[in-house]
Amino acid sequence: MAEAARGSVRRITEVGEDVLKRPCREVTEFGSAALSALVDDMFLTMYIADGAGLAANQVGVDLRLFVYDCPDDDGVRHVGHVVNPVLDLPDPGDRRLIDTYEGCLSVPGAAMSVPRTDRAVVRGLDKDGTPLVIEGTGYFARCLQHEYDHLVGHTYLDRLSKRDRKEALRQMADRRDVVFALRASKAEAVEAARRPGDQAPTPG
């Protein structure tokens, strides 16, 4: 997509880093080149890491912003970004919790079962300040809740029992090097494709 084509790959923060532990700041300046570049970089970084969503503090920027490219349970693809989001969940009597496996790009290589509601609505703005309302069901609702958690200083590990959190960190320790190697390989392929002279000649 266009945003990723313009972007640069940024380092993804890991669980334990301070920027992931504190609430992010509201975005106050819209329509800026810096904000557009951040969105572009986040999309490319998310794709390189095979993610379905990415929050700004996952690339070290403590702003209330996340991007997503995520299917719902009907296979409909949802792509976009949202600035200064507010999360609305169904009332407790109307909500249905789905307990299924969830991963996180800042907890590389780990996946644990996390209960989330099957519906969610996010209200916010786009990078130019235009109001947005995003409605999600199924896996997309999970994605919206997951990314919103990041912006208030939480990862999915904070929703786990001590035992499950320990297991997730063990998985991360075992698999992170493989995950990092795959990300580095994909990032290098993107950079190679952008270098002049690296592309095959077009048949005449």
Note down, in words, how this protein is organized.
The protein is an alpha+beta fold and 204 residues long. It has one domain: Peptide Deformylase. It has four helices and seven strands, in the order ααβββββββαα. Strands 1-2-3-6-7 form a five-stranded antiparallel beta sheet, with helices on both faces. It is globular and about 60 Å long. Mean pLDDT is 94; it is low at 200-204.
Q: Give the second-level CATH assignment, the architecture.
A: Alpha-Beta Complex
Q: Any idea what the shape is?
A: globular
Give the proportion of residues in helices.
25-40%
In N-to-C order, the SSE pattern is: HHEEEEEEEHH
- In CATH, what is the homologous superfamily? Peptide deformylase
CATH class (first level) name: Alpha Beta
Number of domains: 1
**Structural category:** alpha+beta
Number of helices: 4
The order of strands across the largest sheet is 1-2-3-6-7
Largest sheet: 5 strands, antiparallel
Strands, total number: 7
End-to-end CA span: 28 Å
User: Residue ranges: pLDDT <50 for 5 or more in a row?
Assistant: 200-204
SS strand fraction: 15-25%
Quick summary of this structure?
The protein is α+β, with helices and mostly antiparallel strands. It is 33% helix and 25% strand. It is built from 4 helices and 7 strands.
Key structural traits:
single chain; 204 residues; alpha+beta; Peptide Deformylase; five-stranded antiparallel β-sheet; two-stranded antiparallel ribbon; 4 helices; 7 strands
Secondary-structure map with pairings?
Layout lengths: L1 H5 L26 H16 L4 E3 L9 E7 L5 E12 L8 E7 L7 E7 L1 E7 L5 E7 H14 L10 H33 L10
Antiparallel strand pairs: 1-2, 2-3, 3-6, 4-5, 6-7
